[in-house]
Amino acid sequence: MPIASRGTSSGEEVMTTRILSALALVLLLPFAAAVSPQARAQSYPAKAVRLVVPLPAGGATDVIARAVSQRLSEMWGQQIIVENKGGANTQIGAEAVAKSAPDGYTLLATSEATLAVNPFLYRKLAYEAKDFVPVSGLGTITQALVVHPSVSANTVAEFIALAKSKPGELNYGTLGIGSSSHLNTISFESLAGVRLTPVHYRGGAPALTDVIGGHTQVLFISVTLMNQPWKAGQLKALGVGGGKRVPQFPELPTIAESGLPGYQAVSWFGLFAPVGTPAGIVRNMNADVQRILADPTFQEKFLTPNFFEPIVGSADAFASYVKAEQARWSKILADNKLSAE
């Protein structure tokens, strides 16, 4: 009987096995979907990631780095430790990352100064541009040309005419040699054929405060910092440096359309890793960052209120963007014979 039973039920046993296997697969699919992000996080990263910001806390670079890192931490299931390591126009923090192991566990979030300006500004640099691999762009912020209300110019064209009539008499604030405010002004002077006198500050806030107070007359500053005092009538905004008008205040023209074609004053921020970091890790990080930047909630709650425009594209596309910026700034620096120790 047992032999007969096995013989007559072998087909049923095979069918039952197949049904149970299929049922088990169906039951396990939701579990597999639930654990797949965790499984991915265990492959990379398997431990905390260190993110170096080579600038002080509270600035635009720090703000966007922390916002994106918080979302990455949630996606990866691992802590991301943001370390502000400022000094020497981002050189100190950048050097620390350049000397780190290329394993994806030490990253750099920085502005254009580190890789598009410093290599062509400083005669001696603590790192080289080739020490880093671009991972993903994070965002851009447009700079605005603002003046004290006492300045008798209400448009870019009027300001250029005024500056030409008073060469060297108008002072402009900078955040130091090689800073975005400094280089954007130099670029403006070169294209407009004017000469202004620099006054150096330690940060955007004190520079802006002195323009509001009338101690300096001119400043290129991010639209984020310019927004409130401009609306309060504490300064005049003449134009913005982006390729298009800022959506939040479309009445403010671009400098390019206001008498200085080709002018650009935009700060950008990106994520980098030490050269030699595995290409697979770079691709995965780029995909995750791009997913965050494309998220409508992240755009609504963070990017738009802070005037950030996301930088969209692959790691290769961001690398091309960085190369184009290097070419642009190296020419500006060379044309103006600007260098620093």
- Which bin fits the share of residues in helices? 40-55%
Low-confidence regions: 1-42
The computed structural class is alpha/beta
Query: Number of helical runs?
Result: 11
**Main β-sheet, in a few words?**
10 strands, mixed
- Please report the total strand number as a whole number: 10
Shape descriptor reads: globular
Indicate the proportion of strand residues. Answer: 15-25%
Order of helices and strands: HEHEHEHEHEHEHEHEEHHEH
Short description:
The chain is of the alpha/beta class.
Supply database-style keywords.
about 350 residues; alpha/beta; ten-stranded mixed beta sheet; 11 helices; disordered N terminus
Structural account:
- By secondary structure, this protein is an alpha/beta fold.
- It is built from eleven helices and ten strands.
- Strands 1, 2, 3, 4, 5, 6, 7, 8, 9 and 10 form a ten-stranded mixed sheet that branches.
- Strand 5, helix 6 (180-192) and strand 6 form a beta-alpha-beta unit.
What are the SSEs and their pairings?
Blueprint: H1 2-43, E1 49-53, H2 60-76, E2 80-84, H3 91-98, E3 106-111, H4 112-121, E4 132-147, H5 156-165, E5 171-174, H6 180-192, E6 197-200, H7 204-212, E7 218-222, H8 223-231, E8 236-240, E9 266-274, H9 279-294, H10 296-303, E10 309-310, H11 315-335
Parallel strand pairs: 1-2, 1-3, 5-6, 5-7
Antiparallel strand pairs: 3-9, 4-7, 4-8, 4-9, 4-10
